[in-house]
Design brief:
single chain; alpha/beta; Enolase-like, domain 1; TIM Barrel; seven-stranded parallel sheet; binds 2-succinylbenzoate; binds magnesium ion
Length: 370
């Protein structure tokens, strides 16, 4: 039984080591929303993966704060939960807002696993204590700078490189990268930047031997992706479009993708991510864990999810140093020469939030008794 006492939210601003540019915009500072729960006999941390603006998703850290305050706190007041997987039912009266829900559920899983004294990845049925990882490289100023960045990451041992693409930063870029790195496991992510009318243009991606093309079309365009899948040889991987387990089911039924990038925040929480895992496992569809430039708290949860048997492709879970000079949690995630990241051995998420760092990066904080 979990009896909650307090929910706190911390809004932080963490400067990124490198600006991160995608087809929908550029981020230089990550606005991170951390949530902590205090309950009978323990506490836990979760990270809301929403961004500062409604670009990747309609959710932002501010919409998440609003629904936590106006909807989740009243729903949770005086409520007991027997397990973290009860939370989605309690929050079900709230339509949408998967990332806000997921942040709370993450903190609840951390609290639960800490009380059990076990690493979260073992509790959810993980089968490996280290995970293969890749790196996601944003749109750069020019091709020579991109080639330098790819070379540096390959040198560090990353097992796969994902390039952000958009119209005007695609074919020429792929030609240059493939010429210099003919054997490199490579993928691209368009973050919804193309339309089905550009299918012929996307077809030209086929000659680069990509592992996948991620989310080429609109975030709500499953049918478009299903049609495009019939035209391309390169497997389509969906990210933005898979906004819930139900949407994952629809995407699989429609053959809109052959691979799914799972982000627990985007699908509504860890329980929902476990459901997506079951659906994909039943159909033999490979999964990998995506990222949202999380701090160590969010990355620890992603790493735990990536230990499940169906998560077989390299993940967007890179070393801490790739994102932040100083993270808010310890220990940092480090890359082994084999291109893997070992799971931290501690209980719960396995990372400890450093209170002084929260204070150092915090721009505002809230706390509610429940
Ligand atoms: O589309 O996968 C994406 C970052 C922010 C928002 C969306 C995406 C990404 C990434 C970076 O690709 C993944 C990471 O290393 O965290
Ligand atoms: Mg993506």
């Amino acid at each position: 039984m979990i009896e909650l006492k307090r929910i706190s939210a911390h809004l932080l601003e963490l400067p990124l080591v490198h600006p991160f540019r995608t087809s929908f915009g550029e981020e230089r500072v990550r606005r991170a929303l951390l949530v902590s729960l205090e309950g009978e006999g323990g506490s836990g941390w979760g990270e809301c993966v929403a961004g500062a603006g409604p670009w990747y998703s309609y959710e932002t850290v501010y919409t998440a704060l609003a629904v936590i305050k106006e909807a989740f706190v009243p729903l949770l007041r005086g409520r007991r939960l027997s397990h973290p997987s009860d939370l989605p039912r309690v929050l079900a009266p709230v339509r949408g807002h998967p990332m806000a829900k997921a942040a709370l559920e993450a903190a609840l899983w951390d609290l639960h696993a800490r009380r059990e004294g076990k690493p979260l990845w073992r509790i959810i049925g993980g089968v490996r204590d280290r995970i293969p990882v890749g790196v996601s490289i944003g749109i750069q100023e020019d091709i020579p700078s991109l080639l330098d960045r790819v070379a540096a990451f390959v040198e560090q041992g990353y097992r796969r490189v994902k390039l952000k693409v958009k119209p005007g930063w695609d074919i020429q870029v792929l030609e240059a990268v493939r010429e210099r790195f003919p054997e490199l496991p490579l993928s691209v992510d368009a973050n919804c930047a193309y339309t089905l009318e550009e299918a012929d243009h996307l077809k030209a991606f086929d000659r680069f031997g990509l592992m996948m093309v991620e989310q080429p079309l609109g975030y709500d365009d499953l049918l478009g992706h299903a049609k495009l899948a019939g035209l391309l040889e390169t497997p389509i991987c969906l990210d933005e479009s898979v906004s819930s387990p139900h949407r994952a089911w629809e995407a699989l039924e429609l053959s809109a993708c052959r691979i799914i990038n799972v982000k627990q925040g985007r699908v509504g929480g860890l329980s929902a991510a476990l459901e997506v895992h079951e659906l994909a496992q039943a159909r033999g569809v490979p999964l990998w864990c995506g990222g949202m430039l999380e701090t160590g708290v969010g990355r620890a949860l992603n790493a735990a999810l990536a230990t499940l048997p169906g998560f077989t492709l390299p993940h967007d879970i890179s070393a801490t140093s790739r994102y932040y000079h100083q993270d808010i949690a310890e220990p940092p995630f480090a890359l082994t020469p084999e291109g893997t990241i070992p799971l931290p051995p501690g209980p719960g998420l396995g990372v400890e939030v450093v209170p002084e760092r929260i204070l150092a990066f915090q721009v505002a904080a809230w706390s509610w008794r429940v």
